[in-house]
Amino acid sequence: MSSIKVAITDDHPMILEGLTTILSRYDSIKVIGTYSDGDELLKGISKYVPDVLLLDIQLPGKMGDELAPALLEQYPQMKILVFTNFDSNLYATKMIWQGVHGYLLKNAKEDVLVHAIESVFNGKEFIDADIRKRLDEQGVRSKRILTAKTTLSIREKEVLEQIVSGLTDQEIANKLFLGSGTVKFYRKNILLKLDAKNTAELVSKALRFGYVK
Description:
Strand content: 5-15%
CATH class of the largest domain: Alpha Beta
CATH topology of the largest domain: Rossmann fold
Low-confidence stretches: none
Structural class: alpha/beta
Largest sheet: 6 strands, parallel
CATH superfamily of the largest domain: Response regulator
Order of helices and strands: EHEHEHEHEHEHHHHHH
Number of domains: 2
Shape: elongated
Number of helices: 11
Radius of gyration: 20 Å
Protein backbone atom coordinates (compact mmCIF):
# COMPACT_ATOMS: atom_id res chain seq x y z
CA MET A 1 0.00 0.00 0.00
CA SER A 2 1.38 3.41 -1.01
CA SER A 3 1.65 6.21 1.53
CA ILE A 4 -1.05 8.87 1.87
CA LYS A 5 0.42 12.06 0.41
CA VAL A 6 -0.31 14.95 2.79
CA ALA A 7 0.21 18.70 2.48
CA ILE A 8 -0.09 21.13 5.38
CA THR A 9 -1.08 24.80 5.31
CA ASP A 10 -0.59 26.84 8.48
CA ASP A 11 0.92 30.26 9.12
CA HIS A 12 2.81 29.17 12.27
CA PRO A 13 6.26 27.69 11.45
CA MET A 14 6.35 25.70 14.69
CA ILE A 15 3.05 24.02 13.88
CA LEU A 16 4.24 23.15 10.38
CA GLU A 17 7.44 21.71 11.78
CA GLY A 18 5.67 19.87 14.58
CA LEU A 19 3.05 18.31 12.32
CA THR A 20 5.70 17.27 9.82
CA THR A 21 7.72 15.61 12.59
CA ILE A 22 4.67 13.83 13.99
CA LEU A 23 3.41 12.54 10.66
CA SER A 24 6.87 11.40 9.57
CA ARG A 25 6.67 8.71 12.24
CA TYR A 26 3.97 6.91 10.24
CA ASP A 27 4.90 4.78 7.25
CA SER A 28 1.37 5.18 5.90
CA ILE A 29 1.74 8.98 5.60
CA LYS A 30 4.15 11.09 3.58
CA VAL A 31 4.25 14.90 3.89
CA ILE A 32 4.90 16.26 0.40
CA GLY A 33 4.52 19.98 1.09
CA THR A 34 4.11 22.64 3.76
CA TYR A 35 2.74 26.11 3.07
CA SER A 36 2.38 29.22 5.22
CA ASP A 37 -0.32 31.03 3.24
CA GLY A 38 -2.83 30.63 0.44
CA ASP A 39 -0.57 31.87 -2.33
CA GLU A 40 2.16 29.37 -1.44
CA LEU A 41 -0.46 26.63 -1.25
CA LEU A 42 -1.97 27.35 -4.66
CA LYS A 43 1.46 27.48 -6.26
CA GLY A 44 2.68 24.33 -4.54
CA ILE A 45 -0.23 22.02 -5.20
CA SER A 46 -0.35 23.04 -8.84
CA LYS A 47 2.81 20.92 -9.08
CA TYR A 48 2.24 18.28 -6.41
CA VAL A 49 -1.38 17.51 -5.55
CA PRO A 50 -1.72 15.77 -2.17
CA ASP A 51 -4.22 13.09 -1.31
CA VAL A 52 -5.13 14.99 1.86
CA LEU A 53 -4.66 18.68 2.61
CA LEU A 54 -4.54 19.86 6.22
CA LEU A 55 -5.95 23.38 5.97
CA ASP A 56 -6.00 26.00 8.69
CA ILE A 57 -8.75 28.63 8.55
CA GLN A 58 -6.87 31.69 9.79
CA LEU A 59 -4.26 32.41 7.13
CA PRO A 60 -2.60 35.57 5.77
CA GLY A 61 -4.39 36.90 2.72
CA LYS A 62 -7.15 34.48 1.79
CA MET A 63 -8.67 32.59 4.70
CA GLY A 64 -9.13 28.84 4.59
CA ASP A 65 -12.88 29.15 4.13
CA GLU A 66 -12.22 31.25 1.02
CA LEU A 67 -9.65 28.81 -0.38
CA ALA A 68 -11.61 25.59 0.18
CA PRO A 69 -14.33 25.99 -2.50
CA ALA A 70 -11.81 26.90 -5.21
CA LEU A 71 -9.49 24.05 -4.23
CA LEU A 72 -12.31 21.50 -4.23
CA GLU A 73 -13.45 22.64 -7.65
CA GLN A 74 -9.97 22.56 -9.16
CA TYR A 75 -8.78 19.36 -7.42
CA PRO A 76 -11.90 17.23 -6.86
CA GLN A 77 -9.82 14.16 -6.06
CA MET A 78 -8.09 15.91 -3.14
CA LYS A 79 -9.53 15.56 0.38
CA ILE A 80 -9.51 18.60 2.67
CA LEU A 81 -9.24 18.18 6.43
CA VAL A 82 -9.68 21.51 8.22
CA PHE A 83 -7.24 21.67 11.15
CA THR A 84 -7.98 24.72 13.23
CA ASN A 85 -8.32 26.41 16.62
CA PHE A 86 -11.77 27.68 15.63
CA ASP A 87 -14.05 25.71 17.95
CA SER A 88 -17.11 27.02 16.18
CA ASN A 89 -20.31 25.31 15.05
CA LEU A 90 -20.71 28.14 12.55
CA TYR A 91 -17.36 27.60 10.85
CA ALA A 92 -17.71 23.82 10.96
CA THR A 93 -21.16 23.97 9.38
CA LYS A 94 -20.06 26.47 6.77
CA MET A 95 -17.01 24.46 5.71
CA ILE A 96 -18.84 21.15 5.67
CA TRP A 97 -21.42 22.84 3.47
CA GLN A 98 -18.58 23.97 1.20
CA GLY A 99 -17.59 20.33 0.77
CA VAL A 100 -14.57 19.78 3.01
CA HIS A 101 -14.16 16.22 4.20
CA GLY A 102 -13.23 16.81 7.82
CA TYR A 103 -13.04 19.40 10.60
CA LEU A 104 -10.61 18.81 13.46
CA LEU A 105 -9.43 21.04 16.29
CA LYS A 106 -5.72 21.54 16.93
CA ASN A 107 -6.01 20.23 20.48
CA ALA A 108 -6.69 16.75 19.08
CA LYS A 109 -4.39 13.94 20.15
CA GLU A 110 -1.87 12.52 17.71
CA ASP A 111 -3.75 9.27 17.14
CA VAL A 112 -6.97 11.19 16.43
CA LEU A 113 -5.19 13.32 13.83
CA VAL A 114 -3.79 10.26 12.08
CA HIS A 115 -7.18 8.56 12.20
CA ALA A 116 -8.80 11.68 10.73
CA ILE A 117 -6.32 11.75 7.85
CA GLU A 118 -6.89 8.07 7.11
CA SER A 119 -10.66 8.49 7.37
CA VAL A 120 -10.97 11.33 4.88
CA PHE A 121 -8.48 9.64 2.55
CA ASN A 122 -10.80 6.62 2.50
CA GLY A 123 -13.80 8.78 1.65
CA LYS A 124 -15.29 9.12 5.12
CA GLU A 125 -16.33 12.35 6.81
CA PHE A 126 -14.49 13.16 10.04
CA ILE A 127 -15.79 15.82 12.43
CA ASP A 128 -14.22 16.70 15.78
CA ALA A 129 -16.11 14.76 18.46
CA ASP A 130 -17.17 17.79 20.52
CA ILE A 131 -18.38 19.71 17.48
CA ARG A 132 -20.17 16.64 16.14
CA LYS A 133 -21.98 16.27 19.44
CA ARG A 134 -23.14 19.89 19.40
CA LEU A 135 -24.29 19.64 15.80
CA ASP A 136 -26.19 16.44 16.55
CA GLU A 137 -27.87 18.16 19.50
CA GLN A 138 -29.14 20.84 17.15
CA GLY A 139 -30.96 18.10 15.28
CA VAL A 140 -33.13 19.07 12.34
CA ARG A 141 -31.94 22.68 12.43
CA SER A 142 -28.35 21.65 11.68
CA LYS A 143 -29.42 19.18 9.01
CA ARG A 144 -31.36 21.89 7.22
CA ILE A 145 -28.34 24.17 7.18
CA LEU A 146 -25.93 21.43 6.14
CA THR A 147 -28.13 20.20 3.28
CA ALA A 148 -29.40 23.56 2.03
CA LYS A 149 -26.79 23.72 -0.73
CA THR A 150 -28.06 20.56 -2.37
CA THR A 151 -31.77 21.18 -1.72
CA LEU A 152 -31.96 24.73 -3.08
CA SER A 153 -32.91 24.59 -6.74
CA ILE A 154 -31.08 26.66 -9.33
CA ARG A 155 -34.01 29.07 -9.53
CA GLU A 156 -34.21 29.34 -5.73
CA LYS A 157 -30.52 30.25 -5.62
CA GLU A 158 -31.12 32.94 -8.24
CA VAL A 159 -34.03 34.35 -6.25
CA LEU A 160 -31.98 34.23 -3.05
CA GLU A 161 -29.19 36.25 -4.68
CA GLN A 162 -31.70 38.95 -5.61
CA ILE A 163 -33.22 38.97 -2.12
CA VAL A 164 -29.78 39.49 -0.63
CA SER A 165 -29.25 42.34 -3.12
CA GLY A 166 -32.28 44.05 -1.59
CA LEU A 167 -34.75 43.74 -4.47
CA THR A 168 -38.48 43.52 -3.82
CA ASP A 169 -40.53 40.56 -5.03
CA GLN A 170 -41.82 42.59 -7.99
CA GLU A 171 -38.32 43.72 -8.92
CA ILE A 172 -37.09 40.13 -8.73
CA ALA A 173 -40.01 39.00 -10.87
CA ASN A 174 -39.19 41.61 -13.51
CA LYS A 175 -35.48 40.77 -13.50
CA LEU A 176 -35.93 36.98 -13.69
CA PHE A 177 -39.02 37.10 -15.94
CA LEU A 178 -41.23 35.45 -13.33
CA GLY A 179 -44.65 36.20 -11.90
CA SER A 180 -44.69 37.97 -8.53
CA GLY A 181 -46.68 35.05 -7.09
CA THR A 182 -43.97 32.65 -8.23
CA VAL A 183 -41.30 34.75 -6.51
CA LYS A 184 -43.35 34.75 -3.29
CA PHE A 185 -43.55 30.95 -3.56
CA TYR A 186 -39.78 30.66 -3.98
CA ARG A 187 -39.18 33.06 -1.08
CA LYS A 188 -41.39 30.92 1.19
CA ASN A 189 -39.52 27.75 0.22
CA ILE A 190 -36.11 29.37 0.78
CA LEU A 191 -37.16 30.62 4.23
CA LEU A 192 -38.22 27.09 5.13
CA LYS A 193 -35.09 25.40 3.80
CA LEU A 194 -32.70 27.82 5.52
CA ASP A 195 -34.78 27.75 8.71
CA ALA A 196 -35.14 31.54 8.70
CA LYS A 197 -38.04 33.37 10.37
CA ASN A 198 -37.91 36.49 8.21
CA THR A 199 -36.04 38.20 5.39
CA ALA A 200 -33.46 39.79 7.70
CA GLU A 201 -32.51 36.39 9.16
CA LEU A 202 -32.55 34.88 5.67
CA VAL A 203 -30.07 37.46 4.36
CA SER A 204 -27.88 37.03 7.44
CA LYS A 205 -27.71 33.24 6.99
CA ALA A 206 -27.15 33.50 3.25
CA LEU A 207 -24.12 35.71 3.83
CA ARG A 208 -22.74 33.84 6.85
CA PHE A 209 -22.92 30.42 5.22
CA GLY A 210 -21.81 31.50 1.77
CA TYR A 211 -25.03 30.74 -0.14
CA VAL A 212 -24.36 33.84 -2.22
CA LYS A 213 -21.11 35.56 -3.17
